[in-house]
Amino acid sequence: IDVFLARSLLEKLYLFQYPIRPASMTYDDVTHLSAKIKPKQQKVELEMAIDTLNPNYCRSKGEQIALNVDGTCTDETSTYSSKLMDKQTFCSSQAASNVSRYAAAVYKKGELHLTPLHGILQLRPSFTYLDKADAKHREREAANEGGDSSQDEAEDDVKQITVRFSRPETEQARQRRVQSYEFLQKRQAEEHWVHLHYYGLKDSRSEHERQYLFSQGHGLAENTELIKSPSEYLMMLMPPSVEEENDKPVAPSNVLSMAQLRTLPLADQIKILMKNVKVMPFANLMSLLGSGTDSTAVLRCIQQVAMLVQGNWVVKSDVLYPKDTSSPHSGVPAEVLCRGRDFVMWKFTQDRWVVRKEVAAVTKLCPEDVKDFLEHMSVARINKGWEFMLPYDEDFVKKHPDIVQRQHMLWMGIQAKLEKVYNLLKEHLTPKKQEAQSANPLLVSGEQRVNMAKAKVKQNYGQLEKEFQKQKAEVKSNDTSAKMDVSNIHIKEEPVSDEEPMDTLAYEGLNNGVVNGLHAEEDSVDSLNGHLPGGRIDRVAQELKAFVSSTFKKQFVLTLSELKRLFNLHLASLPPGHTLFSGISDKMLQDMVLDTGCKQILVPFPPQTAASPDELKVYALWEAGDTYDQHRQVLLEIFSKNYRVRRNVIHSQLSQECGEDLNKQEVDRVLKVSLCSSVGLTQLIQT
Questions:
Q1: Gene Ontology terms, cellular component aspect (predicted)?
Q2: What 3-state DSSP class applies to 380?
Q3: pLDDT tens digits for 72-88?
Q4: In angstroms, rounded to a whole number, what is the distance separating the alpha carbons of residues 432 and 348?
Q5: How far is the C-alpha of 633 from the C-alpha of 621, rounded, in Å?
Q6: What's the DSSP call for residue 598?
Q7: Cα 38 to Cα 41, 384, 574, distances in angstroms
Q8: pLDDT confidence bin for 147, thresholds 50/70/90
Q9: How far is CA 681 from CA 556, 562, 636, 668, 685, in A?
Q10: Tens digit of pLDDT for each residue in 535-550?
Q11: Is 169 helix (H, G, I), strand (E, B) or coil?
Q12: Handedness of CA 47, 52, 56, 61 (dihedral sign)
């Protein structure tokens, strides 16, 4: 079939899409009373007659509508002069912003003639006559209410007015005004209508115009653009798509097109999937992303939008509740909702079951918000509570221990924040014992898993002790040849059960090697207890010393509790497999603090203080090399004698020891720069 491009109606041909016609109106033979167009906006308004004699036409309804619109009087301004709704107005809207890919085709005698479309317009009924009826009704009501107040009209017309002179408009203000919706609406309203004449389907003028749909010349001279190579012709048929965000239809938030999804960057794909699914195993996520996707890149992206809970990925709270949003149920801001949902997620890292009343009592949120949190990640069980909706993904935990450890560190930081916000008690922090589930024997509680791991360690204790002694002998033999300086590193020689790893959580229920409710791998027992291979000791010491030095240069005074919290945050920011993940005990951390030039300040806290032992251990950088070293040392000496000191005492002591007559502002600056900028001393003073 030969294809021809007709140019006679180029940039003049429009396609009108009419709604489903009522039984009383046929578009083929309908009488067009008027037609007008705004060319720049491509906006058309048609007025069509309605067959009032059709048996499907309701005459009483038509008379009622005409009466409501025009009232009882009939004049030139009346919409329906026949006192009957005998016409219907249709207004257009653009069906597609880019119509360059569409054409009207006519097939005749083995030839296909194409004419490009200049616009596709959808015609919809206009109901402006209803607005006119409402205006008439309001006018009648106003006339009835104001009938008796004609005497006061003169007084009411006298009103005080305020005259204001406009300021010169700046360029930025002008641009904002030009881009405003009100200005655009005004511009569109200012364009004049161009009245058209409608010709019917069988009119001679219509027959004449339809001939322009055929190409007038078939010679190759007028179609030189079609003389292309096969590759160029294919590029013309299927040009590379240029995505325009403004032209994309906005789909509902719960509807996803997988074809469109895979055109987005990988990070956006994962974010959209997690936001819609909310809980997903890693294997399912990889299957949705399609074959050929790099699992390492997916792991890097998933950690930005989700957290690991029982081996499965749960979307982060701040993704579901962005900043400056609020709850649709209670109006609570997004920050409070995120804290409440984080508490629910954290509870599921400790146990497979969560009680709704307990969550509501701790978070103080309304029942609807708490129910939303639980429905995101769990299923309600009668007389039992809410159970995490997915089984524990043991395969992912075994394949990616670094990711599991990193997520465990993040959860420890979240737990510390939740404890301060909600004042969590011991029963909230300790996972409850669960009865064995007969329906699903594969599900084992976290406490049972820990007990099984401890029993296995006891069985293999003899073998572990032999391996440890062997490693110890190898380290001693390599010390002389490698010339390793381990004066600052203390290798622990106690049995495995005598010294526990650093209690980074400060809660007795979470320092048992459980990562998201599961015990870590058994071959990591030595590293968690501080027994490092000889080749890694120097690197661990250097990394730890660098962290301690940089931390105390920023915050001169820290409690051991605050230092451990900062160390956990530092671990969470490190890449998987970093040397510091081998395990750092409390003793190693405290020894390194003393080796970097810091001193322990023995603050005489009162016996009845509620602070934990780690909060009572205060360390300070004695010499920072700045101008406030002497002032800082005087202040530390003051606090080593009394935990509570008045400002005037500090003022006099500083003036006496430093030989300077400091005023109040200078004392405040010394306190701020030397000590009070640190979280450690702030906690110390508050305590």
A1: RNA polymerase III complex
A2: strand
A3: 777 777 778 778 888 88
A4: 12
A5: 9
A6: E
A7: 6, 67, 62
A8: low
A9: 9, 10, 10, 15, 6
A10: 556 778 888 888 888 8
A11: coil
A12: positive
